[in-house]
Write a structure and sequence with these properties.
Elements: H1 2-12, H2 33-43, H3 50-59, H4 62-68, H5 84-87, H6 90-106
């Protein structure tokens, strides 16, 4: 969680305003993906035509990445927003929320279980 704490420090520093772009997973897995990719490209001073953006998205979609992962490696589980909280056992979810709950709340990812 040290990197997330550093991220908050970076984003609150006036010297770095406008230099940080936070891409959210949920914006990359649904109909907002094209808009998010264009925003990322714009942020780094680049552009891409519609064909290039579609190619980028098709080459990096969840189903493709899941097929490419080594057998037995469950890194790509379901590709659905908030699925971690139902796919992991309750003890793991509680551990994650205990360690990162304050950061999750800050970024709008509230705990999903009591």
């Amino acid at each position: 969680m040290k990197h997330m704490t550093k991220l908050r420090e970076f984003e609150s520093n006036p010297a770095f305003r406008g230099r940080l772009f936070i891409a959210r997973f949920e914006n990359l897995i649904d109909e907002r993906a094209t808009t998010e990719i264009r925003a990322i490209l714009s942020h780094i001073g680049s552009t891409a035509d519609a064909t290039t953006v579609e190619h980028l998205l098709s080459q990096n979609n969840f189903q493709r990445k899941q097929r490419q992962q080594p057998q037995g490696n469950g890194f790509y589980r379901s590709g659905k927003q908030d699925s971690w909280s139902t796919e992991l056992n309750q003890a793991d979810v509680r551990s994650i929320e205990k360690a990162a709950g304050h950061l999750m709340a800050y970024y709008g990812y509230l705990p999903t279980r009591p």
